[in-house]
Design the sequence.
């Protein structure tokens, strides 16, 4: 009887599986744009819409209708603790809360309103606005709410430093250099925001900011951090002696850096903070509204707005290339290689966006390497993304009718050229490992560098072996060795760009599978057992953004958290890569996805399952709850039908 029951249950699951895969597949196809690509919303926390409001009041160009929508969004995102979190149901983040409070006050919210009172109490109970991070204190300085000594000394003259100097723009991450180049113009000119309504936030300080003397702290509590604080004070005292001619030359160097990378309506670095700083820097330099550089910079910022009927927000950037390639992978899995025509338009769209002619900032470290990567956004030619490129190459290879051979070869050539000395890959640069710079006062956000990571390295290694590179090839061997060394003591891998250890472990298990690793090897079994141990009672997996803090490693199993469709899909894909398709853990995870609430092709998912900068900035990809669950369900179905245990592809 038990066998009959199991067979009946298996048949019901298989039938339901076919139905859901086809429903979601069809829905995903209906979500694509007319030219064949996908572009889902990319949402961050309250910081970006708050900064958009601050930007308008800095310029004195206020769009009340837009700001009303952004304000509605901010009010809805306020948490029960009174402040604003970095991610869904997270703790109060002081810097985010200060910006959100200031933005709402600028829009016109009464400080006596209950939500403003609760926010103010949350901020003051955490030390007040003086304890904010560098970027928030810079915004407050621009509005005259704190003195400029509250901001780390970053004079524009850093633009003239030689490459051999301990600090140079080429030594920090792409996102940092595109933010810093216009920011040092602001730090040097010290413009005052127009602030036409004369709004301040003195009530957010425990003591008057002008009375504060210790705005800069040694966040890392290290001797080197203390040395940098002393150096900050010394250089600040010497600033009046800086030659004016040198300063003019440095400002021009910063302007030249920015204008070379304006990137049309996609913006400097194609990320909001760099775009917003550029707009403010041009304004501070006296650019008129009709100046072409100012106008295009302003347009690039507006393009990030997502305005809906009852509210709106500003995206941190756009993610069409990432969305498109992941959607294509899931569709190819759903079609099981029988009909890749469904992704043909997407592949053609991606081919058009390969960067073949621009030698971006990455070439400073790799001058002999030819361009060949893809960006994350619509256009960002100076900053192609290594992770995106590897995933695109795997998709082109899988779609493979020979039409994409040249694009694949250039992509592989660029990826190989970007491997770091330690065998790993970073996201945008090679050997971006100047870790001492994490101790400068400006780096209190902890995201100054772009070192090699397990998830990106796993993708690049997977790409190489999918394309036929053997595991004894030096590039593959060094990548696998990096991954082996990066494994955590508990068997998991850290996820730099997805939350968190589930994402990292899925990525690495796929790479080891692609490379033909023995799935009975101790390090693989340890990873498998870690994933199984993290399964929740409902059969799914979930992990919170707080796990990026060491003291919160176990929060993915806390009662206040939940399983998510995208993280469940990652865990399933990782387990299936390790040969666990027949395990009870995989079966229950599949059942979770089949039962989880869904509207059309989109599973319900309020949680943030991605990260911009750990402990600082988190992301919610609205497409993750569509294509990742589809991918996992389709792969399970395909492996069950074929009686195979080994996944054939790198992802």
Sequence:
């Amino acid at each position: 009887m038990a066998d009959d029951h199991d067979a009946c249950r298996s048949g019901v699951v298989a039938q339901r599986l076919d139905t859901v895969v086809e429903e979601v597949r069809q829905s995903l196809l209906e979500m694509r744009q007319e030219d064949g690509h996908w572009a889902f919303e990319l949402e961050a926390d309250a910081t970006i819409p708050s900064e958009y409001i601050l930007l308008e009041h800095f310029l004195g160009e206020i769009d009340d209708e837009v700001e009303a929508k952004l304000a509605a969004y901010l009010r809805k995102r306020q948490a029960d603790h009174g402040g604003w979190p970095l991610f869904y149901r997270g703790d109060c983040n002081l810097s985010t809360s200060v910006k959100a409070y200031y933005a709402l006050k600028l829009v016109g919210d009464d400080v006596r309103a209950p939500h403003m009172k609760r926010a103010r109490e949350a901020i003051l109970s955490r030390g007040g606005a003086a304890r904010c991070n560098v970027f928030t204190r810079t915004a407050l300085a621009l509005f005259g709410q704190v003195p400029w000594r509250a901001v780390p000394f970053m004079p524009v003259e850093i633009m003239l430093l030689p490459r051999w100097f301990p600090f140079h723009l080429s030594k920090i991450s792409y996102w940092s250099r595109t933010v810093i180049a216009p920011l040092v113009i602001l730090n040097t000119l010290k413009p005052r925001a127009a602030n036409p309504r004369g709004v301040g936030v003195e009530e957010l300080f425990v003591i008057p900011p002008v009375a504060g003397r210790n705005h800069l702290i040694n966040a890392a509590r290290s001797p080197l951090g203390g040395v940098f604080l002393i150096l900050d004070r010394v250089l600040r005292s010497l600033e009046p002696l800086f030659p004016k001619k040198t300063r003019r030359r440095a400002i021009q160097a910063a302007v030249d850096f920015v204008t070379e990378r304006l990137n049309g309506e996609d913006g400097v670095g194609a990320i909001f903070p760099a775009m917003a700083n550029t707009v403010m820097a041009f304004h501070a330099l006296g650019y008129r509204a009709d100046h072409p550089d100012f106008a295009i910079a302003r347009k690039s910022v507006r393009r990030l707005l997502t305005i809906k009927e009852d509210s709106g927000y500003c995206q941190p950037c756009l993610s069409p290339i990432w969305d498109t390639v992941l959607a294509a992978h899931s569709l190819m899995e759903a079609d099981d290689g029988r009909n890749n025509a469904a992704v043909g338009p997407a592949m053609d769209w991606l081919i058009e966006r390969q960067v073949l002619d621009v030698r971006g900032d990455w070439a400073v470290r790799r001058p002999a390497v030819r361009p060949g990567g893809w960006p994350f956004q619509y256009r960002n030619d100076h900053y192609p993304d290594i992770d995106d490129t590897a995933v695109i190459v795997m998709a082109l290879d899988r779609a493979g009718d020979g039409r994409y051979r040249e694009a694949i070869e250039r992509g592989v050539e660029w990826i190989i050229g970007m491997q770091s000395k330690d065998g790993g890959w970073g996201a945008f640069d090679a050997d971006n490992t100047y870790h001492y710079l994490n101790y400068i006062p400006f780096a209190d956000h902890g995201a100054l560098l772009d070192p090699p990571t397990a998830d990106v390295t796993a993708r690049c290694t997977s790409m190489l072996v999918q394309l036929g590179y053997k595991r004894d090839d030096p590039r593959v061997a060094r990548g696998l060795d990096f991954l082996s060394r990066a494994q955590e003591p508990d068997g998991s891998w850290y996820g730099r760009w997805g939350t968190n250890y589930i994402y990292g472990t899925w990525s690495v298990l796929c790479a080891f599978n692609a490379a033909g690793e023995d799935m009975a090897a101790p390090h693989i079994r340890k990873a498998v057992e870690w994933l199984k141990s993290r399964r929740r009672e409902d059969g799914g997996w979930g992990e919170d953004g707080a796990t990026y803090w060491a003291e919160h490693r176990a929060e993915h199993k806390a009662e206040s958290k939940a399983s998510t469709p995208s993280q469940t899909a990652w865990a399933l894909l990782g387990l299936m890569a390790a040969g666990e398709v027949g395990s009870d853990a995989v079966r229950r995870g599949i059942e979770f996805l089949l039962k989880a609430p869904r509207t059309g092709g989109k599973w319900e998912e309020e949680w943030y399952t991605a990260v911009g900068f750990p402990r600082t900035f988190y992301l919610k990809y609205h497409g993750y709850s569509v294509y990742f669950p589809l991918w996992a369900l389709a792969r399970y179905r395909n492996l069950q039908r074929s009686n195979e245990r080994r996944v054939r592809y790198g992802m």
